[in-house]
Amino acid sequence: MTMMCGPLDSVPLESLFRRLDGPGRQRMLQAAAAVDAARPTGQVPQWQWFPDHIECPTVQIDGVVLEILLAEISLYDEGGDWLEAAIDVEWTSAGQLSACAAMSMPCWCPEDHGTHYAPLYNVPVDATTSLDEAFEAAAHHLMDWLDRSRDPSFWRTRANLPRSSSPSRPAEQERWG
Prior knowledge:
This protein is an alpha+beta fold. About 30% of the residues lie in helices and about 30% in strands. Mean pLDDT is about 90; it is low at about 165-175.
């Protein structure tokens, strides 16, 4: 899989999303620029794009997200805990595009789920919602969440997730799980 990475002005939106018209491209760029502006001070804005995922694959593997465009923002990382915000455009298992915004944190459940995405907001691209509208809506939700809190415990409480590591988990798993 080929992954490219760079600042927003290096993202080739016109080749990633061939059906996107000029005004739609401008809307996506404005929404993406707002996401970049919300990054913590000193964090260099980076976007990732995946040229191999431009076309919807004919076969998809359950649980594998095929992103076309992605930005991740590290909001907190201390003492084995972290919080990250993300926005992407991806293929759904139904073979349609979706714009997605999420806040993610490590799992501290007795059964290790790896990462929890809470909240998660998906906007499918369909006959009534264009890609630029979906991306703009996902960016709007992400910006709203960033205005609320950048503390992982806030998001765990909202999602009714465990608020601290389980003492039954091995120390190494607590630190890196």
